[in-house]
Amino acid sequence: MTRQVLSPQVTITPDLEPWVRFLRAHAAITRQLSARLEAQHGLTLSDYDVLVQLYFAPERALRRVDLARSVLLTASGITRLLDGLERSGWVEKKSCDSDARVSYAVLTDAGCAKFEDASRSHRADIEELFGSNFSDAEHKQLGELLGRLPLAETSAACSSE
């Protein structure tokens, strides 16, 4: 029994239609983005999110606990994800000199190169699957509307520099 919760047969009330459309669009777009990122670069969306956060962080390093918060993972979830990125040579673990309880995730040179390579095609995929559906004014308006939602604030790591 592997039916999606929001199958096309579901009748929804008008007040829920925007929510259901948002959920379906999010699921469809992230599924496509994830598949492309995996096929082209061997990265999951979570891997890419970590690389983004570290790439734009000061000194390309973040405390692991702060990184977990920024990518919305638990402590054990970020540990597993970082273990894989460390095995690939894209991230390394560094200890804090002044507090042995604190450790940092640091983007390596190989991780920078991986992010820069993946970023080119990933941003093009985002434009194709998402951005191209909206005019500049609609894009701005959508950003403003979504900015009202909880946890929607944009971190500095999302800058387009």
Strand and helix layout:
Layout: H1 17-41, H2 45-56, E1 61-63, H3 64-70, H4 75-87, E2 91-95, E3 103-107, H5 109-129, H6 136-146
Antiparallel strand pairs: 1-3, 2-3
Helix pairs in contact: 1-5, 2-5, 3-4
> Major beta sheet, specifics?
3 strands, antiparallel
Instruction: Tally the beta strands.
Output: 3
Structural shape: globular
Mean pLDDT: 87
What would you report as the Rg, rounded to the nearest angstrom?
18 Å
Q: For the terminal residues, how far apart are their CA atoms? A: 46 Å
Task: Please report which band the strand proportion falls in: under 5%, 5-15%, 15-25%, 25-35%, 35-45% or over 45%.
Answer: 5-15%
H/E element string?
HHEHHEEHH
Low-confidence stretches: 156-161
- Number of DSSP helices? 6
Structural category:
mainly alpha
Q: Could you describe the 3D structure shown?
A:
By secondary structure, the chain is mainly α. It has 6 helices and 3 strands, in the order ααβααββαα. The protein has helices spanning 17-41, 45-56, 64-70, 75-87, 109-129, 136-146; strands at 61-63, 91-95, 103-107. Strand 2 and strand 3 (103-107) form a beta hairpin. The longest helix is centred in the first third of the chain and has 25 residues, at 17-41. The protein is globular and about 55 Å long.
